[in-house]
């Protein structure tokens, strides 16, 4: 797996999915990509969609803090996943999120610290 850092906007509100004793929060980030040619930035015709999956505290905080359209920076480990039935199987790149933050060049935030977890958690 390789580490990726992306910036973009949430395509929809994050979705929480219980899995065993934990919850996985899934969200999509739309990134406007492009390239520099001859010293000028040329945007690609279509933006890139990144599928993201966050667990534990980072997932809980994403679900509680972010909504569709929010500008974010996401860092995590990227890998390929597959889904669907045999014969109709689809593949896509997924980022297992290590960290998420607001893009402060496009938004302001108010930080609220989480209360400390007890030793039993």
- Which class do the helix and strand fractions yield? mainly beta
Detail the poorly predicted runs. Answer: none
Q: Assign the CATH topology.
A: OB fold (Dihydrolipoamide Acetyltransferase, E2P)
Overall pLDDT level: 90
Share of helical residues: under 10%
Q: Could you give the topology of this structure?
A:
Elements: E1 2-10, E2 15-19, E3 22-31, E4 34-37, E5 40-43, E6 48-55, H1 56-65, E7 71-83, E8 90-102
Features of this protein?
121 residues, mainly beta, OB fold (Dihydrolipoamide Acetyltransferase, E2P), two-stranded antiparallel ribbon, 1 helix, 8 strands, 8% helix
What's this model, at a glance?
This protein is mainly beta and 121 residues long.
């Amino acid at each position: 797996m390789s580490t990726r850092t992306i910036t973009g906007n949430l395509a929809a509100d994050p979705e929480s999915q219980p899995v065993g004793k934990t919850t996985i929060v899934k969200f999509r980030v739309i990134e406007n990509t492009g390239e520099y040619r001859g010293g000028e930035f040329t945007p690609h015709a279509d933006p890139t969609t990144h599928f993201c999956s966050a667990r534990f505290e980072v997932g809980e905080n994403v679900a509680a803090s972010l909504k569709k359209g929010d500008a974010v920076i996401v860092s995590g480990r990227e890998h390929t996943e597959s889904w669907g039935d045999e014969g109709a199987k689809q593949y896509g790149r997924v980022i297992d999120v290590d960290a998420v933050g607001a893009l402060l060049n496009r938004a302001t935030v108010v930080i609220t610290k989480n209360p400390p977890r007890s030793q039993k958690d």
